[in-house]
Amino acid sequence: MQATTSAGLFRCLMSCSLALASAGAGAQTVELRSADSFAKITDGTERSRALFVEAGKVIQSPRCLNCHPAGERPTQGNDMHPHEPMVVRGADDKGATALRCTTCHQGANFEPAGVPGHPLWHVAPLSMAWQNRSLGQICAQIKDTRRNGGKSLAALHEHMASDTLVGWGWAPGSNRTPAPGTQAQFGELIKAWIDSGAACPKP
Question: Would you tell me how many other CB atoms lie within 10 Å of the CB of residue 67?
């Protein structure tokens, strides 16, 4: 059993290393405007929409979209190519029985092979898929408790601002471009968006 697991991990590491090499160097990191910088927008609804558009720089970055796939197979890298080795989300979004996410993705980034890691590594459920959707569609989806795991707006803010798996996006390791800004800035934008009415950009 140990030999089988070690062989599987070796194949994962080799496949991930090759996939990372093919993705090329990371792009320039994008900055985020502060939530306070939107205070001059006097119309509350328009300010709320503008805040979400700014937060959308994070939401629509590869660090988030790769883990919110629209299909059974996640993507990876700055160029969002199909995951290598071939994997699927599985019944619990943590991989198929024969190849769980944690077979390759350990508790922390493994820099020698460029493999990302976190103790809770998994893909978002299909109800939370963001790929191939406009920012307005994602916004409506995020607010919908039937599709966001039953989260209230307060719980949604807590998830965005404090969840450590979300936080991985700002420390992705290897040649991956971190999510724009910082998690604290992102959390402040989400909080200001909620406080100003949680309005969504037009689809």
Answer: 23
**Which DSSP category does 111 fall into?**
T
Amino acid at 138: I
**Residue 155 vs residues 70, 149, 181, 190, 199: alpha-carbon distances, Å:** 23, 10, 21, 11, 17
Cross-strand pairs, 96 = 99
Q: Evaluate whether residue 203 is within a structural domain.
A: no
Q: What's 105's DSSP letter?
A: -
pLDDT tens-place string over residues 68-92 = 999 999 999 999 999 999 999 999 9
From 198, 183, 187, select the one nearest 153 (Cα to Cα).
198
| pLDDT tens-place string over residues 138-182 | 999 999 999 999 999 999 999 999 999 999 999 999 989 999 999
Peptide bond into 85 cis (omega under 30): yes
Q: How many domains does the chain have?
A: 1
Confidence (pTM): 0.86
Q: Is residue 200 part of a domain?
A: no
In-domain check, residue 161: yes
Domain of 95 in residue numbering reads as 2-195
Please count the residues of the chain.
203
What ranges make up the beta strands (E) of the chain?
75-76, 81-82, 95-96, 99-100
Give the N- to C-terminal CA distance of the chain in Å, as an integer: 51
pLDDT at 203: 77
Task: Inform me whether the pLDDT recorded for 94 exceeds 50.
Answer: yes
